[in-house]
Amino acid sequence: MFPNAHQPTYGVFVRERVRHMASRCDLQVVAPIRWFPQQQRLPGRSELRAVATEEQYGFPVYHPRVFSIPGVAKSLDGVFYFLSLLPFLVALRRRFAFDVIDAQFAYPDGFGAVLLGRALRRPVAITMRGYEVELAAYALRRPQLRFALARARVIAVSEALRRLAVDLGVPHERVRVIANAVDAGVFRPRDKGSARARLELPQDRTILLGVGGYVEGKGHELVVDLLPRLLVRHPDLLYVAVGNSGGRDSRLPAIGRRIEALGLHGHVRLEVARPHAEIPTWMAAADLFCLATRREGWSNAITEALACGVPVVTTRVGGNPEIVRDGEDGFLVPYFDADAFVDAVERALGRRWDHAAIAQRIAARSWDTAAESMIDALNEACRNAAA
């Protein structure tokens, strides 16, 4: 999960940590592309057009193919990951004698990385980022998660994921929390009127913003379903959603049908695949950030909204309670309590917020600090392997 020329917003949060680490160590990125014969004919697979090698921020990014059978045999993805990448990493090690493998997500990447580390006699660190919550429920993948996490230095981006790692058998002291961060020089309070003018948004409307892929778990449909109730007291309401299309799991067509069925054409604006550099402007244009998400590791969108001084209404899942102070930065509601969500939005819109204080607190979470912590964790993995 790493941006490439055809998917520039894919895994930006991974690249942010990596590029800040790059000033502290020599690194190279291997961002595999899932592949299956004839798969280029399937919809939503633009990543297959990624070049084999590119350079980003001064370090190389490789895109070797890994065999993956779409739709079935997902419990074998970790093994396919290992078998597909072993020849590539053997060749890479001849010209780049790496000391440690830093894997993102515990499955299939982390599982495959642990097998690669054992074959190449290199220690492995695994960062748990949120998908593990869902994967741990699968009977065939849970043992693979346990296997991988037991043999790696484990990093969790939230306390919620640390607890999951412990539940999977990792000793508490072997899990380190290194949360995602934010670039406060980019995500900061800006003039709302100027932002709306730039984006051609109306100056006289109350704008709710949601940022996240158009997939079921991000909850765009849930917010759309609540709009008729919110419009009773806020007839000028406009919900703006910004996200990637969602690929094969896209809910865009379903959201479009829902908007039409509810007669909400004048109250919803859907933006697809906007550049990440444009997101701060969308944040600045909003009165309130809303995310009815089903699961999260550490939500970058919520962090970025708060860094822009925008209050948040979201669900009490994953790391969200670690980001949003209920009643101070916004409101947290159970997933998915529609009445509570409507009430929280109405309370948030009727409250005067200290936008500068919201932004100042979250801005302290810098990528430089996260990168330093990650380098320390990788050094520890190397020391333990040597011992």
Labels describing this entry:
single chain; 387 residues; alpha/beta; Rossmann fold; six-stranded parallel beta sheet; four-stranded parallel beta sheet; 15 helices; 15 strands; globular
Can you put this structure into words, describing what you see?
With about 375 residues, the protein is α/β, with parallel strands linked by helices. It folds into two domains: about 10-180 and about 365-385, Glycogen Phosphorylase B (Rossmann fold), CATH 3.40.50; about 190-365, Glycogen Phosphorylase B (Rossmann fold, 3-Layer(aba) Sandwich), CATH 3.40.50. It contains 15 helices and 15 strands. It has helices spanning about 10-20, 75-95, 105-120, 130-135, 140-150, 160-165, 190-200, 220-235, 250-260, 280-285, 300-305, 320-325, 340-350, 355-365, 365-385, and strands at about 30, 35, 55, 60, 65, 100-105, 125-130, 155, 175, 205-210, 235-245, 270, 290, 310-315, 330-335. It has a six-stranded parallel β-sheet, sandwiched between helices. Strands 6-7-8-9 form a four-stranded parallel β-sheet, sandwiched between helices. It has a three-stranded mixed β-sheet with strand order 1-4-3, with no helix packed on it. Helix 12 links the parallel strand 14 (about 310-315) and strand 15. The longest helix has 20 residues, at about 365-385. The radius of gyration is 21 Å and the shape is globular.
